[in-house]
């Protein structure tokens, strides 16, 4: 048993020695081959470096190549200007925009001017701003009396009332400077503008007091438009009245200012309760 064990150990020792020697020789042969390979690579690299130029030389060669590649252009003479043929162009863009601008501006100004003239132009017949035929004098007086002392004429924007004949003498001294207005009074008619001379409110009548009473600020006027109370600076403005062949014609083209505060040619006082505020004198 001991002999067998000894032999086995000896065999293992021999095998181990063989393995070690074999590995040593393999490493040695590999190292030799590696050195030879590195030597060849180094030789090849040095040969390649000796054949290729250096960095500075390469840069110089590149600059020289670019310099020879650039070509200096020869001077070229500018061709003379030749205007285009108008028949070929027709209407240029500049001409088109200029004409379009002038046309649009002219049309706009023309339309605005026509609108202004249409607004300011007084109608040849009928309508406010012209002479209005109100109808027969007898019919006008009958209409005033049937409407409790007042008759409104929409196309003239005026109130028509009667002026008492017994007050003409006193009225002449007040309205003598307004001959067209006094002429209507002499015919027994007064045409009063509907606007209050204070701030332009439309003045209605008050059937109980038989006055004109403004609902805006309380101004009050007697039946012929003379101021009786309130903040109005004067009596109601009025229009010229004329009688042509028995017809009452009211000229609304001109407005005559109302009489001064304190004027009372008819002596009319309030004939009943006021519709607005309280009457003053």
Describe the protein:
By secondary structure, this protein is an alpha+beta fold. The chain has a domain at 131-256: Rieske Iron-sulfur Protein (3-layer Sandwich). The chain contains seven helices and ten strands. The protein has helices spanning 2-51, 55-69, 86-89, 93-120, 137-146, 168-175, 179-186, and strands spanning 131-136, 151-153, 158-162, 189-193, 205-206, 211-213, 220-221, 227-229, 238-244, 247-256. A hairpin with a 4-residue loop joins β2 (151-153) and β3. The protein is elongated. The mean pLDDT is 81.
Structural class: alpha+beta
The rough form would be described as: elongated
Rounded to the nearest angstrom, the radius of gyration is 61 Å
Q: Strands of the biggest beta sheet: in what spatial order?
A: 1-10-9-4-3-2
Give the CA-CA distance, first to last residue. 166 Å
**Which architecture of the domain at 131-256 does the CATH hierarchy give at level 2?**
3-layer Sandwich
CATH fold topology of the domain at 131-256: Rieske Iron-sulfur Protein
Short description:
The chain has 7 helices and 10 strands.
Lay out the secondary structure.
Blueprint: H1 2-51, H2 55-69, H3 86-89, H4 93-120, E1 131-136, H5 137-146, E2 151-153, E3 158-162, H6 168-175, H7 179-186, E4 189-193, E5 205-206, E6 211-213, E7 220-221, E8 227-229, E9 238-244, E10 247-256
Tags for this entry?
16% strand; alpha+beta; six-stranded antiparallel sheet; 281 residues; single chain
